[in-house]
């Protein structure tokens, strides 16, 4: 066998080197790279597209010149990142901060009771379903509930409870004569609203509990009915939800806190009244709130010092500051005496009897004598007059009113300053009649109500 030539040897050697070079260039894995990448990344991409994983975001906001928007600057951000402040912004921020601090110091606003949406419709449906309890007992003659009350505690003055008893008898006599219902309360329904504010939660509770009642007539314990024949002209107040003694110029122009009086007022059973009671009670819901509003009233109303808020100032404040909301349904009555200041009345009773007759209701024969500034129970706190002076005036008022009832039975007080009575008319054979036609109308209130006899 012959040996290979040198040319063949070189060709072989060259082929071997090329083979070695190709071997070095061959990929490490026999599987293509692109397929590997797809296989590895595909599940991850699918997960990201279908999952709800939230990723952090970076938001960049630019405050435009004159913009009112606030930047969300973290508390740890450097001071030089805060937006530049202007004097106006500084003042507004200070006011807002002060307002927030004041709100923190006050308890949250409470309502007198659960909201009653569509109250008027609900009440109308109830009345339709209970025809035996109509809201009007006759045309222009609404069902009226007189509401009054006194403290749950015994009077400190030994004669105080007796004076309160006589005051209640007076109201019961008036209600019996006119066919009104009466409700007497000596309970505080809301411990945070004592004293003069007690009437608001009481009225609210009675409204929703007595849908058959059209009008609620609140009278303070120191109110005495002194015209037992006169009855407010209810037909005059169609479309009116709050009847209160007062004068429009005093309330709306002078902003005088005594331009109206809340010792005697009539309020209708309706949604408007529930809303008013809530807005009214907001200013008396607790001692801190009353202190705050007392200062507000001193600035907003005339002739009032900065003492704790009372319910009368609160109502006047509502009428003054929210006139467009409430005034159209409020009637400030001054044509007759729905609230008569006792000092100007009690020494004129004899003159009234000599010149006039009951049934007028005005200054000639006042419907109501109100002992403002007196404390029938004997509590010296808040009393403006001596107890003896108030007691003498109340004694005269009770006897003046009581004589109008006793006369039906032939009796009368010997004097307005005495409880002793004497006979003024002999009995007749017709006890159901009376020679006095006007006084005789007091005998049959139910008959008068059913026939809607005008007063």
Brief overview:
It contains 15 helices and 12 strands.
Number of helices: 15
Tell me about the largest β-sheet: 6 strands, mixed
Q: Structural class of the secondary structure composition?
A: alpha/beta
Number of strands: 12
Strand order of the largest sheet: 4-3-5-8-7-9
Q: N- to C-terminal separation? A: 159 Å
**Topology pattern, helix = H, strand = E:** HHHHEEEHEHEEEHEHHHHEHEHEEHH
Q: Kindly state the percentage of residues in helix.
A: 40-55%
Low-confidence stretches: 1-31, 53-85, 449-455
Work out the radius of gyration. 42 Å
Overall pLDDT score: 80
Based on Cα principal axes, name the global outline: globular
Report strand %. 5-15%
Q: Describe it for me?
A:
This protein has 455 residues and is an alpha/beta fold. The chain is built from 15 helices and 12 strands. The protein has helices spanning 6-25, 33-50, 87-105, 119-129, 160-178, 199-209, 248-253, 271-281, 287-300, 311-321, 323-326, 349-355, 387-406, 437-440, 445-451; strands spanning 136-138, 141-142, 144-149, 181-185, 215-219, 223-225, 242-245, 264-268, 330-333, 368-370, 411-413, 421-423. The strands form 4 sheets. The protein has a 6-stranded mixed sheet, with helices on both faces. It has a two-stranded antiparallel ribbon with strand order 1-2. Strand 3, helix 5 (160-178) and strand 4 (181-185) form a beta-alpha-beta unit. Helix 5 (160-178) packs parallel to helix 13 (387-406) and helix 6 (199-209) runs antiparallel to helix 8. It is globular.
């Amino acid at each position: 066998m012959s040996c290979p030539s040198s040319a063949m040897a070189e060709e072989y050697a060259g082929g071997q080197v090329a083979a070695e070079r190709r071997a070095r260039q061959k990929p490490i894995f026999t599987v293509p790279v692109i397929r590997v990448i797809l296989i590895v990344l595909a599940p991850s991409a699918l997960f990201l597209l279908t999952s709800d994983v939230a990723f952090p975001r970076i938001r960049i906001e630019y405050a435009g010149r004159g913009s009112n928007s606030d930047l969300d600057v973290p508390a740890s951000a450097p001071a030089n990142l805060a937006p530049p402040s202007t004097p106006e912004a500084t003042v507004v921020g200070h006011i807002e901060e002060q307002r927030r601090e004041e709100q923190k110091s006050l308890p949250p606003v409470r309502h007198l009771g659960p909201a009653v949406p569509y109250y008027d419709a609900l009440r109308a449906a109830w009345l339709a379903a209970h025809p035996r309890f109509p809201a009007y007992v006759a045309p222009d003659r609404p069902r009226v509930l007189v509401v009054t009350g006194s403290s749950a505690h015994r009077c400190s003055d030994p004669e105080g409870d007796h004076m309160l008893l006589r005051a209640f008898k007076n109201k019961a006599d008036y209600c019996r004569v006119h066919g009104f219902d009466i409700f007497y309360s000596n309970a505080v329904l809301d411990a945070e609203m004592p004293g003069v504010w007690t009437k608001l939660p009481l009225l609210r509770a009675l409204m929703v509990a007595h849908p058959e009642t059209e009008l609620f007539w609140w009278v303070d314990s120191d109110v005495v009915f002194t015209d037992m024949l006169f009855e407010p002209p209810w037909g005059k107040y169609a479309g009116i939800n709050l009847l209160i003694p007062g004068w429009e110029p005093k309330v709306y122009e002078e902003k005088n806190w005594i331009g109206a009086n809340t010792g005697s007022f009539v309020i209708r059973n309706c949604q408007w009244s529930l809303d008013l009671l809530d807005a009214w009670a907001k200013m008396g819901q607790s001692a801190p709130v009353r202190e705050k509003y007392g200062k507000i009233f001193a600035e907003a109303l005339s002739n009032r010092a900065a003492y704790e808020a009372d319910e009368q100032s609160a109502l006047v404040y509502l009428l003054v500051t929210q006139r467009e909301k409430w005034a159209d349904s409020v009637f400030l009555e001054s044509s007759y005496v729905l609230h008569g200041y006792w000092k100007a009345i009690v020494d004129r009773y004899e003159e009234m009897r000599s010149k006039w007759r009951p049934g007028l209701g005005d200054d000639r024969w006042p419907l109501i004598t109100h002992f403002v500034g007196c404390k029938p129970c004997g509590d010296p706190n808040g009393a403006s007059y001596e107890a003896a002076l108030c007691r003498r005036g109340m004694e005269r008022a009770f006897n003046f009113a009581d004589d109008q009832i006793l006369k039906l039975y032939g009796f009368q007080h010997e004097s307005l300053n005495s409880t002793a009575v004497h006979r003024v008319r002999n009995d007749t054979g017709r006890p159901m009649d009376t020679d006095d036609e006007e006084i005789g109308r007091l005998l049959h209130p139910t008959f008068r109500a059913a026939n809607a006899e005008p007063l």
